[in-house]
Amino acid sequence: MNTSFTAGGFTQGGGGGAGTAAPEVKEGFCPLVIKQILKLGDDGIKIFGTTFGVMNLVAIVRSIEPSSTKIMYKLEDHTGRIDAHLWLDESKAETIEPIKLNTYVRAFGIPKTRDGVKVIMLFKIRPIKSANDITTHLLEMMNTRYTCEKNLIMMRSGSNAVSDVDTGMDVDTTNGGMSSSTGLKGKPLIIYQAIKGHKSDEGISIQQIHQKFKHISIQEIRQITDNMSLEGHIYSSIDTDHFLPTE
């Protein structure tokens, strides 16, 4: 039996009859930041080909607007702001935990587009009582992205890693053209060094790498970073264009 998530909540999906397409398999909760939510399409919560049923977000509450039918929150994290709506159910009204302005919360729901604006339709929102939850959420978000991205790369390339894209140019002569810790050389090595040397919590972007090495095309940089992600040298952080080293 497949359990899927719809706008109204959980529904139990049985096996389809003859000629009926099988329901899309959805994973569980997907930790996201607001920038990622705003970039999602209207076809659900999809991260590198993996579909999730529900997103969860850790953010600060910047405004609260209650009404007779719903409560509207404006949520903010380090990547942006978004509105979130919690529809009220009389039978569950007493179970809603009180939320205070300018405090951190964990929100569960699904993103929807209303009049061209992305909002979150909340299923649950609760206050965060430990600062560790904030850090843990970011780590979970990055791990989910890395895992989904790695699975997609492996699915596209098969069980074998993509072939080496070394061209023999831009070798790091300080170590004989070879990184003793990574085994990289040529263009992959200098790109890896740029990623590792960039001091930012969000990582360095493909555009920033291209600015450093204009003789390497953006398409080639993407291919090289895909290879290094598959080999475990780097992982994408806030989106598909930003990378951090694994070491």
Q: What do you see in this structure?
A:
The chain is of the alpha+beta class and 247 residues long. It has 2 domains: 27-155, OB fold (Dihydrolipoamide Acetyltransferase, E2P) (Beta Barrel), CATH 2.40.50; 186-245, Arc Repressor Mutant, subunit A. It contains 5 helices and 12 strands. The protein has helices spanning 34-39, 132-157, 186-197, 206-212, 218-230, and strands at 2-6, 9-13, 27-32, 45-47, 50-66, 70-77, 80-87, 104-114, 117-127, 204-205, 234-236, 242-245. Helix 3 crosses helix 5 (218-230).
Please outline the helices and strands:
Blueprint (H helix, E strand, L loop, with lengths): L1 E5 L2 E5 L13 E6 L1 H6 L5 E3 L2 E17 L3 E8 L2 E8 L16 E11 L2 E11 L4 H26 L28 H12 L6 E2 H7 L5 H13 L3 E3 L5 E4 L2
Parallel strand pairs: 3-5, 7-9
Antiparallel strand pairs: 1-2, 4-5, 5-6, 5-8, 6-7, 8-9, 10-12, 11-12
Helix pairs in contact: 3-5
